[in-house]
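re: ur question from earlier - yeah i can do the single chain one, its not a big deal. heres the input i used so u can compare w yours
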Amino acid sequence: MKLYTNKKYNTVALYAIIVIAVNVVIVTAIFKFNAILNILGKLVDVMMPIIWGLGLAFLINPMMVATERLYQKLFKVVKRPKLMRAVSVAISCTVFLGIIVGIISIVVPEFVNNFNNIVENFSKLVENAEKWLTRIFRNYPKIQKFFNDQITNFGSDLNRLQPMLENIANGAADFFSVLYNFVLGFLVSIYLLLGKETHIAQAKKLLFAKFSKGTADRILRFGNDANLVFSGFIIGKIIDSLIIGIICFVGLTIIGMPYNVLIAVIVGVTNVIPFFGPLIGAIPSALLIFLEDPKMVIWLLLFILLLQQFDGNVLGPKILGGSTGLPAIWVMIALFIGGGLFGFIGMLLGVPTFALIYKLTREHVNEKLKKKKMPTDTQYYIDNAAKLTEPRARRTPLTPEELDNIIIPSCDEVNEAADDEPEAAPYDDSEYGDNYDDEDEE
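and the output i got, formated as tokens:
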């Protein structure tokens, strides 16, 4: 017996099944939220070496590209491109590891020594700060009591770190976990860099196989924009912060500021955060100097202010250029949302993410305005704000008397008028020169 199917009912049934499945997934996600988070956490742990590999390849890639350009200039004709890629990857990875090892070997010991010195001598530092506050605010006992309470609370919180420093071996498991992921990720990044063009070509092949050509082109254009924004901002910001950290260390050493290495690390790391980074780094740095020598706080804040002006007006624009193109208000919004959701990483990645969204939205809006034959310049909508919002004038209908006065010619009169019109003179374009046709064609 042959069964006959109805396409209309089959489509309705398919949509009903999809809706039910989506609802089941949503309900399951609500009631099993913690279980889903645990599964996602385990998946992220398993994928962590690959994530590290992608991140390290992203950071090493600019050095590899620069090395290949230098290789091509030296040897003019490249007969073995695979050999050039292998040499470029080897040099870039060696330089990258050398920078990481050099920073760790120089900064970490000094950082730990300064921190241990603060913890061991904290009681003396607190005593010096309290004496200074007593002398300054001796006529204001309430203010003096407030600052003394704050210093005491800070001391009790900091003293809790002493057992952590003494039992630092307890965190060895986390350290080896990070080291394990870094080593495996570094190996993954080497394979990714060696076959970069092949991996990109395979991704394009998959896109064109699964999507229409227009959709695949839009996805590739989005990926290219994302790469330009993120690479330009993140790599540029890392280089900028490294230079600022070095300048801060040299300047503090010349001034004779205590804890110069610790403060330079704090300023350099927090400088990665746009807009609020210098302020975030200045607060703990000023607190440390206040405990050691309150008179030096003014010099420290003045130095950080000058350093921030140099970074914001000279160094930052030279390195970053227009990598984000994001207005200041959107930078602040990106920092608030990214920092509130994902902490430090969110503040770092929030700005390029919003910059990419801002760029795509601006292109979409301009495209829609061009289709409506409207200007895309924002200044036009500032200058003509009242004109754009004024209501259209309503047309009043004609009265019966005006309709009676309208004279409509007959068809014979129209034909006679057309026959009486003189013939148009032949068109002569010689006066415009030979280039007129070409310009018209263009």
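The two ends are 67 Å apart (CA to CA). not sure if urs matches, ping me
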